[in-house]
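Obj.: predict assembly geometry.
Materials: sequence records (below).
Method: joint structure prediction, all chains together.
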Amino acid sequence: DIVMTQTPLSSPVTLGQPASISCRSSQSLVHSDGNTYLSWLQQRPGQPPRLLIYKISNRFSGVPDRFSGSGAGTDFTLKISRVEAEDVGVYYCTQATQFPYTFGQGTKLEIK
Amino acid sequence: QLQLQESGPGLVKPSETLSLTCTVSSGSISSSGYYWGWIRQPPGKGLEWIGSVSYSGTTFYNPSLKSRVTISVDASKNQFSLKLSSVTAADTAVYYCARHGGGWAYWGQGTLVTVSS
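Observations (raw structure tokens):
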């Protein structure tokens, strides 16, 4: 199985300041079709997860442009340019390049 | 906008079979290029992929659960289903159904299933 490791596991951030979450996979996430199926999910308290970013850097419909994704191979990053109160929650990276699909442990974003 | 809704018992006895159905609305389960999956989240913990099914019925399961899991699709009802046999307390979780096509784009609200006698 591909292990997804996120850092940090907890991130206290001041409103209006940037935030960054890293995700490292135990194997390359480049699929044989040339795509890299690395996504980022946001889970607000009491809510189902919500897709933010897919295939490393593509923002899903309705996702604010303060969210951005980058990376390649085994190292990926989610950045929030200016944190807002509604961004509080847990963020997961997830891979769909190889079965079984796997998730990172989650990073809890909280406001200082 | 595509909507998914889980349904099924919220309480299952140990050793019995957990059965859930996901009903898809405002879209067709037969759309090609997508997988329909089940993901669970134990209380206070992270996400675990259980398995997925394509519109044609091809299935993929997490090896950690494979011996106990069956996922099927009923295109005529625009539904897909999960059966998890021989459940224990460790299977207590919120179970989500979701659609995957490059990313887990659409999710149900989730349903809490508790395994207890």
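Conclusions so far: Residues 44 and 93 of chain B are 9 Å apart (CA to CA).
To do: check interface contacts against the pulldown list.
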